[in-house]
Amino acid sequence: MIDVQSEGVFIHKKCPTHGMTKAMIERDPSYYMQCKTAGATNIYNGYFLDVTERCNLKCKYCYYGVNTEQDPSIESLKAEAMINAHLAPIIISGGEPSLRKDLPEVISELKKIAPVELLTNGTGIDLDEIIPLLANDNGTVNINLSIHTESQGKDLDLLESISERGLKLESVLVVIDSIDQIDNILAFGARHVKNIESIRIKAATRLWAETKPENKIFVSDMLNHIKKYNPTTLWWRNNKTSFFNVELDGMVYMLVSWYDIENVDLLDINCPPFYRAKNGQIENIVTSCLINEGMAKGWLNGGSGW
User: Fold this and answer.
1) Backbone angles phi, psi at 262, to 5 degrees
2) What is the rounded distance in angstroms from the CA atom of residue 245 to the CA atom of residue 254?
3) Domains of the chain with bracketed CATH
């Protein structure tokens, strides 16, 4: 049951074994109700396809359960892409995709099936090989760059290389664990407005394998922090409680605060983008991560439960 109160929006859950629990799903009830009346049906379109489970970084707030198993074959990736082509674009992810030496071939083969985007930490991308495969006629490149301090500046080197070519990245992704970090991100966005289409600011969550942050940051917290800059609210985009868009000085900022095991709002999870959870189910990406966490804790694979 969802309970909208003056001090926040709460979800009440009843477990046959453990009884009632209560968790906050949004701090600002007026913001929550606005999002619910906006009628957005998705976050953004796409199907995440892991081309490797390897990664060369160990980032503090990564939600991915990395291992070093053999990479899936191109044929198996094509088969998965064909089954899910109706959920396109196919967002190549991992792990870190650039660890595959055959990444250009992977992209070329998947493009025969559906539009393709790339999510990368930017540390090992050969732009001379990748740009011709992912460039658009309008000067943007279908690369989503995830920025981490653990990259030791190589991610920013990739952004600089994109800038020198006069191109635009589709998006840049940054994780925060303090609301004050937003100011530096906005300043970064102002400097790179010519070379980045949008910046996603994601609050660190308590989801799957992430290092758990001390305090949860809600989307309304981010909105309240940046209102001093007078951003434009982009209600025409797909705004939901956990994912909201504003524009400031020509840059689109996507403010994200994912749900976790304790405070997931079931009214908000059945929407794109999609991802195959470790039990094989294809669900909304947040739902899939919740399934993965449940499996890791033994909740869904014969474990003792909560």
Assistant:
1) -80, -30
2) 5
3) 44-296 (3.20.20.70)
